[in-house]
Design goal:
It contains no helices and eleven strands. It is mostly beta strands.
Length: 126
Amino acid sequence: QVQLVESGGGLVQAGGSLRLSCAASGRTFSPYAMGWFRQAPGKEREFVAAIRWSGNSTYYADSVKGRFTISRDNVKNTVYLQMNSLKPEDTAVYYCAATLHDIRVGVSFEYRWNYWGQGTQVTVSS
């Protein structure tokens, strides 16, 4: 069984930065990709970013391109989300996810992702 544990959330002022981490554990952890989704109050969960576990392919939602950067450490089984120039509309619970599926198709669809973390709150004040 794969477990994903997020950390790094918190309260930050608009224009500030945060770095989220997601550590994965499991007897054999070899996903196709890992990623981040978020859910703001009263809204559906949405895709934020994803990275293949091998190679250099990354994927971003238009709303975060140029501000967020996803990266990984395969040795530590950890994925990171560096969030810069944060805006109040980035306020949400951020969820880490891992998938066994080829994310070149349907990366933003939740059903394509197999494992989920419990989420970490990010609050951006204006």
